[in-house]
Amino acid sequence: MPIQPLQLDDRSFEQLYAEAISRVPVHTPEWTNFNESDPGVTIVQLFAFMTENLLYRSNRIPETNRRKFLSLLNIGLQPATPAQGLITFTNDRGPVQAIPLDVGQQVLAGKVAYTTRTPVNVLPVTAVGFYKKPQPALDDATKQQYRQFYQTFLESDIDQLLLYQSKQLDTPAAGKPLPVVDLIQDTIDSSLWLALVGPPNIPINTVRQAIAGQTITLGIYPSVMSSGPSLPPLTSPENTPQLDPGLNFYIAAPLADPATPGVGMGDPRYTRLKPDYAEDVLDNPGIVQLTLPAYPTLLLWDFGPEEDGTGDYPPLVENTDLKSRIVTWLRIRLPLPPPLTTTTQAGSTTVQSQAGMQQDSGGGANGSTNRQARLTWVGANAAHILQSVPVVKEPLGVGTGGPDQTYRLANTPVIMPDVLRAHAMIGATSAGTFALEVQNDNGGWDTWQLIDDLYAAKPTDKFYTLDPEAGSVTFGSGINGFRPPLNKNIRISYEYGGGSAGQVAIGAINKSAVPLPGGMKVENPLQTWGASDGQSVSDGERSITHYLRNRDRCVTASDFSDVTLHTPGVSLGRVEVLPLFNPIMFGTENASQTWPGTITVMVVPQYDQEHPDTPEPDYLTLSTISAWLDQRRLVTTEVYVRGPEYVSIWVTLGITVIRGQVREVVQKRVMDALRAYLSPLFGGTPAGSGPTLEADCSADSSGACGSQQGTGWPLSTDVRASDLIGVAMRVPGVQVVNSLYLAWKLPDDTVITKTDSVPMAGLQLPRLEGIGVSIGDADDPADLFGQPTSGGPGTPPPNTTPVPTLPAKC
């Protein structure tokens, strides 16, 4: 017979009192006074109160038992994950000097504490980004005016002017989409120009003396549109991490004007700065540390009005107050082919531009120029932070000498050492504050090691296990793991923190736990990320079946799906697992080949602010999932974590509306139904075999049939015009679909119009870029889209001189 769950008595005080009073006329009809002052009523109320308390305590027994069962199964609850982010320090009002800050600075967003994970040398400058955006087409009269104004740059008839707009990189703001500049598509020179600006009312030379020879720390936040990371088989030892940011960094290096000390002159020349420390900032938010040159070389050109912003000089700055405070220019760009002429100066490379083209000397990630470079924010005096509070040498208890000793930490959740290592600087000697020590017979302290399972320990191994969510430390039994001796003190240093409270908006981190030197200010220019709440007991119970099935290890496709869905810190709406599929080889001549030992995990987030109908995972989400799976996969398995590859499609259809229906309402229903049918989260059908044509399908408020709601458009399922007609026909108010046109875009931006079907393969899913519903015949789908536009070239074409377009004046 089936096992029926226990029905608990959860009646409240009011229910118990009402039930008792209702029984009075049956058992004691002579009792007729039910006022509050009656002694019998008081006794009944006391009975109801005590019964409610007894029921409450009894109902807690199953929850306690469930927690104990989870403990016996060695299934700990997932702890809260800490948020991380970038902050900047500003020294506008303090002394004009460099102020170094070591790792471990505590900053606050209200009551939520964060700790800096990288050191920063705070300089008395701020960074303002500019880029040279290609100028849209101008009329012939305006072009002629610019040719006359910049006539000195046209030495021959074939010389042309490359007009650009000097754009300042917007500052991220709460409630607005994050700004993005694509160094390849949005600029004419593949560069972001960073103006180092001094404080107001301070002489420029004073600021230059303060920053000369100092280390400047840049924080860079990319806007990544990447297919995601890959996890190769662990068949070889890990290589030493390379400090390669994927970008090249230059500083203005004009020739000194002998007639005017402190002023530069001559052609545009730049000195390449080799990073002292760098992270791959094209794929993840990170830090780059550069050493600025000596004071005599920190110069700027003294431009004439007709030279400012031309050629390979820094872009035109329209704000005169900002321009007067620029100390020097940094140029951040993608690596390009080797230089035409190169000279070496004191360990750095000085490159002379020729014909308006700045050449690079190597560098960059793997020497490649094909990487994307989409940047959202670049700032100076930046540090990486983690939502954590350090605790140093907390007394944990005194050893009893018995087996299986367990002690409880004062603060939870505990941040595990692997998380601390992940947020430590590459090459750092310490992975963070985490160490458990037990007093020895000589009065000293021995450091014990953390292990996942004490059953793997020998009797002499000084190991322990840690439940980070409960904050409990367990030692061995003497057979499996050494036991802390009798009357020996135990202490632990650790960091704790995490939870959704750490996910704060821009500018929320605005103070330090202790006063900063020089009256500095602190701020987070971007929202923090990666925080999540810990797993509840009910969530832990629901995960028992999955855990017992895969033991938190990924072997089968269902294992990968279950483990991916339980990744902390991300909200996923769909997970697809493709065994033997290699996304890198998709689209090549080997696309049909199977790849043993390879598995691809495709994820679709629950929500995407930029693409609400077709969510795309950002690189941070993919990296979080990748790190989660890396600890749980087989070492011989190659794993690719990817988002969907959306194929742009357009649909136009003409319908006839049933008499009496409002045509605008019916048109909206048809649009909503097609969007729902093509949705990557709940589109398609449960069977994944196309639309169902039941005549009695009842429509919901969106006009889509409830029985059609699936788990997302199935992979490798073509979008057919006939299916779309069937979906539209089922919308209430549609009498007939007269015609339907389907168009889609190839990877090379070629648009195919009026096709019968759009093929889908691999990780491809449809993205409805445009839809038009008309009464009568369908419109041409070409009316829904324009011709694709290309961005500016990475390097100005030959015989062209970049010149800025001048701002409009009233």
SSE blueprint:
Blueprint: H1 13-27, H2 39-72, E1 84-90, E2 99-101, E3 106-109, E4 112-116, E5 120-122, E6 126-134, H3 140-149, E7 160-168, E8 181-182, E9 191-197, H4 204-211, E10 215-222, E11 230-231, E12 248-252, E13 255-256, E14 264-265, E15 269-273, E16 277-278, E17 286-291, H5 320-324, E18 326-333, E19 342-345, E20 348-352, E21 374-380, E22 382-386, E23 389-398, E24 406-408, H6 417-422, E25 435-439, E26 445-450, E27 463-467, E28 472-475, E29 489-496, E30 511-512, E31 521-523, H7 537-542, H8 544-550, H9 557-565, E32 572-579, E33 598-605, H10 619-630, E34 638-642, E35 645-657, H11 663-677, E36 719-720, H12 721-729, E37 734-745, E38 751-752, E39 757-758, E40 764-775, E41 800-804
Parallel strand pairs: 7-41, 26-27, 33-34, 35-40
Antiparallel strand pairs: 1-22, 1-31, 2-5, 3-4, 3-30, 4-22, 6-7, 6-9, 8-21, 9-18, 10-17, 10-21, 11-34, 12-15, 12-18, 13-14, 15-20, 16-17, 19-20, 23-29, 24-28, 25-26, 25-29, 27-28, 32-33, 35-37, 36-39, 37-38
Helix pairs in contact: 1-2
Task: Write up what this structure looks like.
The protein has 810 residues and is α+β, with helices and mostly antiparallel strands. The chain has 6 domains: 60 residues; 91 residues, no CATH class; 244 residues, no CATH class; 106 residues, no CATH class; 100 residues, no CATH class; 138 residues, no CATH class. It is built from 12 helices and 41 strands. Helix 1 packs across helix 2. It is globular, with a radius of gyration of 33 Å.
Compose a concise summary of this entry:
Helices cover 17% and strands 28% of the residues.
